[in-house]
Write a structure and sequence with these properties.
The protein is α+β, with helices and mostly antiparallel strands. It contains 5 helices and 25 strands. The radius of gyration is 23 Å and the shape is globular. The chain starts with 5 loop residues before the first strand and ends with a strand.
Length: about 425
Amino acid sequence: MKKEIIILGLLTPLLLNAQNNAKGYYKDIFIDGGLRLSSRADLPSARVLGLQTEAFVSEKKAKDYTRMDTLLQEQCFAGSAIDENGVLLYPDGEPRFRMLYLHGGLAESHGKTLGARARDNIRQFVRNGGSFVGSCAGCYITSRGVWEDSLKLREAYLGIWPGLTRGTKLSDKHTGISIEKRSPLLRYYDFGGDRFVDSVYHNNGAFAYTQQMWPEGTEILARYDTQGLTVKRKIQGEAAIWAYKAGRETGRVIPCGSHPENVKSGERLDLMCAMVKYALDGNGEPTVKGELTNGKERLMDRHTHDNNPAYTRIGDKQYHHFTLQVPKHTGEVRINLKSLMGYEDVVMYLCARHGDFAFVDDADYRNVALDADKQLVIKNPKAGILYISVYCATTVDAVATAYGTQYTGRTDVLNGIPYTIKAEF
């Protein structure tokens, strides 16, 4: 099989005691340190929590980014010939990572360098269940625009939180952060019992503007405490961190106006860890591709550009879920998974479970042989809904570079692996 290489992100080592990986994602966090942003691939909170990360980073301290920078960022987020979906999405548009983190920098400039297709991919990532955390520029860009003397909508922003931000006019200072009394962040840490985090770095960040276009369902998690500081704009008590989740199948968006992301100890690290945990707990619920019909083979061979996710190929470490209505007094159910020509050497698992989604570790029935073609035979199954899943265990190899990771090996999986599935009783 032809080996292709694509540069996508920097790989952060996984801690040995990691237990936080959710099911059905390639990895946990993708870090955007791209054009006009801080070019950092490290996220201390991810290391503390034992999460797998990758990143895209641009040339450090480059005021004038090069064509190569632009091409690599476009390849990463907007897609390429060997990865039509971009790094964040599976072939069917589902999130490939659990969360996207976006660094500080220049929000509008970064949005413009991403381009329309990459911005749409990020919106789709959140809409389909991926979560988002952003600091400073990563806070601004979540919104629809800013309110200064008047409303200024920003086309290059993402609008994944459909409200407005406003600049603090506070640069290169440290503020206190007061955690709301009923904030979900307190589920994870008590912050010394006083719900207060001291000396969080702030550099021209934002707060949530509550006077216009305030989105229903927004949760204010924490507020600025600027007592003792000389400020140009009164921000005492304004929303410094907030959260938004549009629905059960969408991800959770958490904008933060300050910079706790690089701290490696203490309550400021706990603050960042709490945001990451709350974001990951807000991933969208799994979805079902469709209901299998007794004796009818279902062909899963569509590509991203076909815009038919219910019949699109499967990506690396992804699950596809199906259901089967099992009648009463059924003596046997047979489920067959078959690869298509040219893909016989991939590894896919076949699982089934009564009444709930079938993941490898909690399925009632599973076949995890190291090949593609599988069969499950279920004797005297329970009547009702049988959940059936296909899991693609074949994935890419990753090699770290200055810009990020080169994907090598089975890069064909980035555009998806086709298969057929049939259930009969």
